[in-house]
């Protein structure tokens, strides 16, 4: 493994939650609520959507059959369904991969509602990559910061994109999505969090492992609703009895950053 992949592994491993805190947590601090990931009827017009749409249009024109889109760590499929808007859609089929079955249920319902043929694969990427097959466009939004061993994850994204017209679109935040809560780990658990792996670190792994020089776009997204004290308490492994304390402590930390990064490459 190269230096960039080692650095990613070390930084990501450092973001684990110590066992004694995790054992005392009233709920799993990592699991996402599927209902929070239902895709909007009208997707946001972002650089990631534009990049995936351009790849899908190119693939559809090349094949004359419409493009297939694979969404890895799909949640409710925001990334994949955004490619199909506006009409006329270049998308013929979408496949969602996620390790959470409830996310795939939201994905399936959204595909059904939109009348888009779909498939789902439950499991952890890259273990289930063979079941997902190859596609014209591979999208993967807000998943990389869940991954410790990045080279096989990226290699499988790369291998899942079939040429010559397709490609991969990764969207992520410049730093770990929970990094804004680091001061609260110190406040509540007396725990210093190590620095976060960054999007630049991920790009360095891509270069090092796959020899890929991606197109990288930094942009600002709409401010997301602030996460309420209940949501934050769960991330911090705290019980409901401490909600009032979490609420006051939240007022002391800077709001979440709103910048995002789109990383695009073709195999
Ligand atoms: C932050 S959510 C993002 C969901 C969606 N891509 C979006 O942008 O709205 C991350 C999703 O990735 C899934 N996930 C994380 N690591 C995964 C892995 N190795 N394989 C498959 N799914 C994964 C989680 O279950 C979750 O649904």
TrEMBL record:
Residues 69-159 form the Methyltransferase domain. The keyword Methyltransferase applies. Keywords: Methyltransferase, S-adenosyl-L-methionine, Transferase. It comes from the Bacteria. Pfam families: Methyltransf_25. Residues 1-29 are annotated as: Disordered. Residues 1-22 have a biased composition (Basic and acidic residues). SUPFAM superfamilies: S-adenosyl-L-methionine-dependent methyltransferases. PANTHER family: METHYLTRANSFERASE, UBIQUINONE BIOSYNTHESIS O-METHYLTRANSFERASE, MITOCHONDRIAL. This is Methyltransferase domain-containing protein. It comes from Pseudonocardia kongjuensis. The lineage of its organism: Bacteria, Bacillati, Actinomycetota, Actinomycetes, Pseudonocardiales.
């Amino acid at each position: 493994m190269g230096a960039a992949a080692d650095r990613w592994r070390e930084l990501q491993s450092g973001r684990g939650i110590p066992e004694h805190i995790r054992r005392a947590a009233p709920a799993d601090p990592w699991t996402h609520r599927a209902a929070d990931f239902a895709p909007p009827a009208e997707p946001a017009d972002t650089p990631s959507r534009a990049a995936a749409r351009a790849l899908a249009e190119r693939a559809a024109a090349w094949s004359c059959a419409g493009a297939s889109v694979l969404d890895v760590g799909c949640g409710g499929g925001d990334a994949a369904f955004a490619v199909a808007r506006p009409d006329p859609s270049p998308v013929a089929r979408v496949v969602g991969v996620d390790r959470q079955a409830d996310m795939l249920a939201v994905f399936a319902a959204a595909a059904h509602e939109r009348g888009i043929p779909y498939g789902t694969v439950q499991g952890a990427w890259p273990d289930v990559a063979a079941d997902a097959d190859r596609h014209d466009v591979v999208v993967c939004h807000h998943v990389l910061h869940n991954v410790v061993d990045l080279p096989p994850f990226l290699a499988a994204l790369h291998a899942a994109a079939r040429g010559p017209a397709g490609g991969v679109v990764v969207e992520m935040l410049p730093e770990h999505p929970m990094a804004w809560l680091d001061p609260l780990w110190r406040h509540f658990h007396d725990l210093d969090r190590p620095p976060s792996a960054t999007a630049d670190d991920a790009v360095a792994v891509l270069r090092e492992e796959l020899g890929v020089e991606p197109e990288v776009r930094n942009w600002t997204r709409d401010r997301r609703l602030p996460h309420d004290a209940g949501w934050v308490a769960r991330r911090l492994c705290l019980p409901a009895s401490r909600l009032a304390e979490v609420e006051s402590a939240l007022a002391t930390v800077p709001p979440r950053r709103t910048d995002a990064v789109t990383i695009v490459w073709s195999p």
